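Example 3.2
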Amino acid sequence: MMGLCVILVGLLNASFGLNSFARFLLTVLLVGAGAAILQVAGNPIMRDVSSPGKYSRNLSLGQFVKAIGSLSGPVIPVVAARYYRC
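Structure, written as tokens:
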């Protein structure tokens, strides 16, 4: 939950406008930190829910999905802000 809250704070920061480079950096920092917290918390949980012999496959899939979210997370608020500003 803490990781999701950190990401939410980062996205809310971006929703108020990225009118300075420092604000953009803060947004990227918070989204990345939240994703890292989720990954660290997810490793032991993944071991508990994976069937024997499938832990590494499930962990790789989870990290792949997290990477897509980390790459697109900072871009989505900017695109949404430009689209809805009309």
